[in-house]
């Protein structure tokens, strides 16, 4: 499914983010940038040791922030490691921290003159952030970014590994199409 906002395309894909040919892949990283499970583990495993070597030099990244590294063997130019929050019930600023992680990832992408970026669903795996709450934050932050500034981004892909997560994002895309007149489906 694809949505167009002026010259910018937002895509929704079910699959493996490590296989996408985009300028940048966002990583759902931990604050130590140590690799882990899920998307983070797959990016480090497939990208190879060059990513971890650069992460060690960076020494970590606070929740809500993002840093850029090499991609190793991945088919992209950059990995942007965004640290999302651990879900603790929703009353400890998790929503704002998640929004900040996406926003900072987009800022790093603009700093590197990225034209295309792929996002996983940050914090919704082992960190336990409910995907039904995370999806509108993720998509809303992206829309706010591309509407509110001059950006070089022209293609933004949300990549969901799980079929159930994909359905949640698809329903949210359908909701946006029905409620926001400046968005349209790409035929």
Would you tell me the overall average pLDDT? 96
SSE order, one letter for each helix or strand: EEEHHEEHEHEHE
CATH class: Alpha Beta
Q: Percent of residues in helical segments? A: 25-40%
Structural class, judged by helices and strands? alpha/beta
The whole-angstrom Rg is: 15 Å
Classified in CATH, the superfamily is Leucine Aminopeptidase, subunit E, domain 1
State the low-pLDDT regions, or none.
none
Alpha carbon gap, first and last residue: 9 Å
Write down the oligomeric state: single chain
Shape: globular
Total separate domains:
1
Would you give the CATH topology? Leucine Aminopeptidase, subunit E, domain 1
- How much of the sequence lies in strands comes to 15-25%
Second-tier CATH architecture: 3-Layer(aba) Sandwich
Largest sheet: 8 strands, mixed
- Output the strand order for the largest sheet: 4-5-3-6-7-2-1-8
- How many DSSP H or I helices? 5
The count of DSSP E runs of length 2 or more, i.e. the number of strands, is 8
């Amino acid at each position: 499914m694809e949505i167009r906002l002026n010259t910018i395309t937002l895509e929704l894909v079910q699959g493996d983010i490590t296989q996408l040919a985009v300028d940048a892949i966002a990583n759902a990283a931990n604050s130590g940038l140590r690799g882990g499970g899920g998307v983070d583990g797959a990016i480090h495993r497939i990208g190879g040791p060059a990513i971890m070597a650069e992460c060690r030099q960076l020494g970590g990244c606070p929740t809500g922030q993002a840093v850029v590294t090499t991609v190793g063997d991945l088919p992209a130019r950059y990995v942007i490691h965004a640290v999302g929050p651990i879900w603790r019930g929703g009353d400890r600023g998790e929503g704002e921290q998640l929004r900040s992680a996406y926003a900072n990832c987009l800022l790093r992408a603009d700093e590197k003159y990225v034209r295309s970026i792929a996002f996983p669903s940050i914090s919704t795996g082992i960190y336990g952030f409910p995907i039904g709450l995370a999806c509108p934050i993720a998509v809303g932050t992206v829309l706010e970014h591309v509407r509110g500034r001059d950006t070089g981004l022209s293609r933004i892909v949300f990549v969901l590994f799980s079929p159930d997560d994909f359905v949640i994002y698809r329903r949210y895309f359908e909701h946006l199409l029905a409620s926001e007149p400046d968005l349209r489906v790409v035929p």
